[in-house]
Amino acid sequence: MKIEEETTSTEVVKKEQCGCCGMSEECTVGYIRWVKERFGGIWVCGLCEEAIKDEQARLGVGVEVALRVHTMFRETANADPAIQIARSILQLLKRIMSATASSGSDSAPQPTTVTQPPSF
Predict the structure, then answer these.
(1) Sign of the dihedral through C-alpha 38, 43, 49, 51
(2) Where is this region: Disordered (predicted)?
(3) For residue 10, what is the DSSP state?
(4) Integer Cα distance of 103 and 64 in angstroms
(5) How many CA atoms lie within 13 A of 62 on its CB side?
(6) Conformational region of residue 55, where left means phi above 0, alpha means psi within -120 to 50, and beta covers everything else
(7) What is the C-alpha to C-alpha distance for residues 48 and 17, in angstroms, rounded to an integer?
(8) Selected residue with higher pLDDT from 82 and 119
(9) Smallest Cα–Cα separation from 42: which of 20, 23, 59?
(10) What is the pLDDT of residue 55?
């Protein structure tokens, strides 16, 4: 996806948006064309490109499959942060309740008392 275009003294530089994560980078037209040829017409940023290479090596698959795997991961990782925080708090509460139940105590753990240093 082309966002904006600049002309330098020798080459045209465009700002492209990554098809995986949405991050933008300024690149030459030749580099953009090379990346799109390599990734099936989709421009990917340098970070996603490295992640896709890692997926290829880890899974022993081609570029297309690694691109799909990485894109699916990005979609999952970009879930609503409020939901992720709520899930983390729920998991923490479950751990606390489990630890309390396994210790045989009916009451919640008591907070540690912290003494304040003397003020001068």
Answers:
(1) negative
(2) 100-120
(3) S
(4) 51
(5) 4
(6) alpha
(7) 12
(8) 82
(9) 20
(10) 92
